[in-house]
TrEMBL record, chain A:
Residues spanning the membrane: 109-126, 154-177, 189-210, 216-233, 279-302, 308-327
Every ABC transmembrane type-1 domain range: 151-331
PROSITE patterns: ABC_TM1
Keywords: Cell membrane, Membrane, Transmembrane, Transmembrane helix, Transport
Native source species: Roseivivax jejudonensis
SUPFAM superfamilies listed in its UniProt record: MetI-like (SSF161098)
Record carries keyword Ribosomal protein: no
Location(s), subcellular: Cell membrane
Protein's recorded name: Glycine betaine transport system permease protein OpuAB
GO cellular component, one term: ATP-binding cassette (ABC) transporter complex
PANTHER family: GLYCINE BETAINE/PROLINE BETAINE TRANSPORT SYSTEM PERMEASE PROTEIN PROW, GLYCINE BETAINE_PROLINE BETAINE TRANSPORT SYSTEM PERMEASE PROTEIN PROW
Protein origin, superkingdom: Bacteria
Automatic annotation (TrEMBL), chain B:
Source species taxonomy: Bacteria, Pseudomonadati, Pseudomonadota, Alphaproteobacteria, Rhodobacterales
The protein's name in its UniProt record: Quaternary amine transport ATP-binding protein
Subcellular location as annotated: Cell inner membrane
Catalytic activity: a quaternary ammonium(out) + ATP + H2O = a quaternary ammonium(in) + ADP + phosphate + H(+)
Keyword terms of this UniProt record: ATP-binding, Cell inner membrane, Cell membrane, Membrane, Nucleotide-binding, Transport
GO biological process: amino acid transport; glycine betaine transport; response to osmotic stress
Amino acid sequence: MATYDWIFDGLGLRQWCDGDGSGGSAPMSMADLMNQTGNAPERTIWDTPFPSMDALNDACASFPQSRELTRGLERGFLDIKDALSYVLDPLTQPLSWALQNALWLFQETPWWIMIPVLALVVLAISKSWKLVAFVAGSFAALAFIDYYDYAMQTLAIIFVCAVICVALGVPIGIAMSRSDRFQGGMIPVLDMLQTLPPFVYLIPLIFLFSVTEPKLYGIAIILYAIVPVIRLTNLGIRLVDKEVIEAADAFGMTKRQKLYGVQIPLALPNIMAGVNQTIMMSLAMVVIASLVSAPGLGVLVLRGIRNLELGVGLISGLGIVLLAVILDRSTKAALARVNAAQKH
Amino acid sequence: MADPKISIRNLYKIFGDDPQAALTHAKAGMHKDELLEAHRHVLGLRDINVDMQAGEITVVMGLSGSGKSTLIRHLNRLIEPTDGEVVIAGENIMDYSDAQLRALRRKQMSMVFQKFALLPHRTVLENAATPMIVDGEKRSAWEAEATKWLDRVGLQGQGPQYPHQLSGGMQQRVGIARALTSNSDIMLMDEAFSALDPLIRTDMQDLLLELQRELQKTVVFITHDLDEALKLADHLVILKDGEVVQQGEPQHILMHPNDPYIVDFISDINRARVLRARTVMRETTEDPGGLAGAVDENATLEDVIAKADGDTNLSFRVLRDDTMAGILSMTDVVKALVPTDAAEDGMRKAS
Ligand SMILES: Nc1ncnc2c1ncn2[C@@H]1O[C@H](COP(=O)(O)OP(=O)(O)OP(=O)(O)O)[C@@H](O)[C@H]1O
Ligand SMILES: [Mg+2]
């Protein structure tokens, strides 16, 4: 005798409940198991169960249990999986290709070319010799303790993912700034991408792509890291001084002239802040992505956890911090230069 | 009179969700307060009719919220009207396509803004050259033209600077140079000098008058400052709650205000400094004899009083282009200085 029998009796559904005899074959819920051991205790008002799917299933065998919900979802996903990968696979193939090539390039370039090139890049974007010295020193230190290859792999992945985030995120942000309706539709999506624990979107991705393909972790990183650059591009363009936009219109600029000549340049500090955050978030995700075969320092962190190799875990963690500091300082220095150039 | 350069006809602007519905109420005679109260729509402009002559400075004056900015933005369609026409050089610009409108904004009109609205990431020279750059001209062409106008407004050698390196007054000079570089006939100025401190402001007004003598543009100037309006205006339009309360020659409005709102407005000003001999004189070409001397018709009463050295018994001959146009007695001068007198006189005429 279950608590909610009266609902089905009252609705005259008793026959449907017992009808197809599925009650017997339905898997037992935890409560059922508990009840089987010993006599069912007297029910008082205090332990009336919430009318949940499992509680209703007790009363009516035809009513689905909650595990059937998750299983239904799984089945539904598996059903569309083939069609989805048929579309997504070729679309995302360039990502695999870009990641493989970047990894190859960053690893095959000898260290005595790579480190100076990185130093030059930092010099070009930051114009700060102090930062250049710090970057060169950090890479030399990583190389000295034989972590150079791992650091390069991580850097290559971040490089590809950050470039793609900017290439997709800036246009999406611009589109959002132009249409309130598009913005309204996008904001919940961005909120969701930002709050979903990163492990959650690894799950469907694992079903869709084979774990050996680089695009699997590439997509995971991009989905996670693209949000700030979209948000800040949108915000930056919306915040451009209204009177300056009016002036642009008053002098007869076309939409295009206004976008490239006024809106993007004036939104640049915000866009750069978004790029900075995007890079930092890809770095965070690249560690998690090692779970699905992303190479780099994250692999060492995982090894540290799995084999309880404390030293390896700590040192590779420190390496990640070092990379984070380098990337953060370089992008912030570039941001500061943009800001200085257009004080109001 | 020649055809006006700009002609605003029956212009209405209503802000809100359903301006067309509110328009019928406004046309039926509702004013700003009633429309807001009864229908939750803001009346921006109501039945505006103004003609602006080529080569003149038309000043639109009114308190904050009276619709000045809304009005001037209709002239280049930065704001779309709810109803009515704006005719520029004989063409109704409401019929213009996007391309025609862009051409109008590039070739025929330029605008100067209250907060300068310069591009912070471009140099002063590039800012001044904006209209020509937008129009796709070559660097050599715009560099020469922009430099010429920067020099003209007193910014020699500042071209390579960035706007934030200049003071407010200098930034607005860049704003004016930018407007001049477009070589357009019409210049729209929305409170162009309001953000500047008083001394710089006077300088800028003098600069504008000087440029105007030379270039003879059709200037539409917005201000909430009566002294500025009287100094610059050839034609003065006074706006209140989105409606024109009076328009005409500034001296005439001073002597014959037709609304308590305007009486209030003009009660504080130094009349001796703004009223001119021609406004107060009695027109005649006969010399009655016994005149103390001659003054120009555009002399202010302040000048005349100084010339008479305070003696109220004198009379002067008033000259227009060196020939006699009238007689100005010091008694009339003193009478004209009393604002209430003028106000009552005006009120009597209005009713
Ligand atoms: N986009 C808008 N939406 C709603 N109401 C508006 C809008 N723009 C202007 N208004 C209203 O129209 C009226 C006129 O505004 P406008 O900016 O033209 O005044 P103004 O005379 O230029 O004032 P100020 O001296 O403060 O610049 C005001 O009551 C204002 O609240
Ligand atoms: Mg205004």
